[in-house]
Amino acid sequence: MSAASAIVVDGLGFAYPDGKIALTEVRFRIAAGETIGLVGPNGAGKTTLFLCLAGVLRVPAGQVNVMGLDPGKPHDRRQLPRSVGIVFQNSDDQLFCATVGDDVAFGPLNIGLPADAVRERVAEALERVGLAGFEARVPFHLSAGEKRRAALAGVLAMRPELLLLDEPSIFLDPHGRRELIRLLSRLDGTRIIAAHDLDLILDTCRRVLVLDGGRLVADGPAETVLSDTALMEAHGLEVPYRLRG
Amino acid sequence: MHYYRASYNTRMTLLLDIPATPASPLHRIDPRWKLAGLLGAAVAIAFLQSSLAACAAMGAALIVAGIARLPGRWFAERLGAALVLPAFFALWLPFVARPGDSVYEGLGIAISVTGVERAAALIAKAAAIVSLVLVLLATAPLQDTFKAAQALWIPGWLVHLALLSYRYLHLLGEEFVRLRIALRVRGYRNRARVHSYRTIGQVAGTLLVRGYERSERVAQAMRSRAFDGRFRTLHGYRTHAADVFFFASSLLAAGTLLAWDLWIRW
Prior knowledge:
The complex is a heterodimer.
Chain A: E1 5-15, E2 21-31, E3 35-39, H1 46-53, E4 64-66, H2 74-83, E5 84-87, H3 91-94, H4 100-110, H5 115-128, H6 144-156, E6 162-166, H7 174-186, E7 190-194, H8 198-204, E8 207-212, E9 215-221, H9 222-226, H10 229-234
Parallel strand pairs in A: 3-7, 3-8, 5-6, 6-7
Antiparallel strand pairs in A: 1-2, 1-4, 8-9
Helix pairs in contact in A: 4-5, 4-6, 5-6
Chain B: H1 2-16, H2 31-46, H3 51-67, H4 72-90, E1 103-106, E2 109-112, H5 113-138, H6 142-151, H7 156-184, H8 194-223, H9 241-265
Antiparallel strand pairs in B: 1-2
Helix pairs in contact in B: 1-7, 2-5, 2-6, 2-9, 3-5, 3-9, 4-5, 6-7, 7-8
């Protein structure tokens, strides 16, 4: 892995226990600090790829390197949550504690930070996503946009070097979506955003990967890839309205 | 349809809500001692058999709820909802006479006086235990109570199960509402016939499958944030004399009730 590469995926394959092949021979490299869009039709393998990168799904050793860690090695896999944060498609899957504050504190407590440092991280993360003072709020009383931001705060509290966002704009109204784009543009580090919302990808990413049927079928500058009508239609996607001639 | 959904969700959310209660002496008790004391009392109450002792237990539990300054309506609604099931069983007891029961006969029906006492004991015990549980829930943040449960060596899986059940119960309720709407817009109405029973079975099965899939995703979300099976919170505990006094008083009261119950039956 080169010093500047945050992620190296080299021939990654993954099949679920029921035999369904989700990823086949996926290869790409992402430099530190890049923001990448990951697009593809339903069932393309986007979420599976995220789960493999985050070490949630087990992959063979040597196929993936994320921030210098190999998710295929048990020791490295245990270290991954400190470096890789994943915001899930449905915020309700992620907000499982009784209060927002407890949920944001969940990760930092798990990595053994002292209480004062955890409180500091919770306040900082909620402030960054615009939810300062929401510590005592109950997750199921939040709006969809607030839930999304609370879920993001829970991940930011871990101070990850790599952020994986799975359909971040889903369930959001136009205002919530604009807020999200503003928020994403303020975040540091390496990011991969998987989305069907291609305008969001255009607004936030310079490079795009296209995944279909578990295979990487295109990798290039966002405008070039997303304006390729033949490529988009061949893989169940549409050229964003803004790029149509 | 829209109004039905809104009203159901509101009811569901209200049912699961834990209200902000005014400070009371019980709020200041260390959650570990409080949980141990109230759980011990609840177990003792479950063993009571005489209606007199059970009614006394219910009275004591209601006094504890009063000391905890629980909002009256919140408390009454949940107590009422929780008593529906035991009431269903208690309703039949006066009409089921066992050998040796004293029976009152009149107006062409036979009522077992012992059965009435059994029904009263059942309802009183259920009311007492539910009241203590509501006191437990309302006088400390839920997270603190779960952490207290772990500190008392209650198995971690049981604590997590309780926490996640609380968190996801309303989501399953929402799924159920969506399924009901999907059925109704396709002309489905509940009727006493095979098609309805089959549909209800399919809805239950769908909810189970969705619940399972959600649990998979929740587990993934937990693992991605370094969860290793141990539950941690920010809140520390310190034992004071009042905590030990509360615990001892709870057990003493429960022990006295048990002894009285044994004496009555002997």
